[in-house]
Amino acid sequence: MNTTLTTTRGQHEHPPQHVHIKELHPVRRVGLLDRIALHVGVALIKWGRRPYPLESRERRADRIEQYFARLAREESARRLLLLTLPPR
């Protein structure tokens, strides 16, 4: 290759304009209502993603055992009631 490229940047603005930084980006303040809405939104997202405790296997097994024991007690009470009531 016989081409040599320059390392300096060329000027692309015709004619060159001098722009102040303040004119490019005007300062905008966030209002109180917007800040409150932002804080409430972030709080809702955090609350929605909060961890909740999972039930352990032992506790779940105990709960199921208690449920079946209650069903057995209710069935025995129903059977005892049917056996002790006078016939119709």
State the helix count.
Answer: 3
Task: Let me know the number of strands.
Answer: 0
> Which strand-content bin applies to the residues?
under 5%
**Major β-sheet, in short?**
none
Order of helix and strand elements from N to C terminus: HHH
User: Which whole number gives the mean pLDDT?
Assistant: 84
Q: Pick out the low-confidence regions.
A: none
Query: Can you tell me the number of structural domains?
Result: 1
Report how far the terminal alpha carbons are from each other: 115 Å
Helix content: 55-70%
Roughly how many Å is the radius of gyration? 39 Å
Which structural class matches the secondary elements? Answer: mainly alpha
Shape: elongated
Describe this structure in words.
The protein is an all-alpha fold. The protein has one domain (about 20-85). Helix content is about 55%, strand content about 0%. The chain has helices spanning about 20-25, 30-50, 55-85.
Keyphrases for this structure?
56% helix, mainly alpha, 3 helices, elongated, 88 residues
Topology of this structure?
Blueprint lengths: L20 H4 L7 H17 L8 H28 L4
Entry summary:
Helices cover 56% and strands 0% of the residues. The protein is built from three helices and no strands.
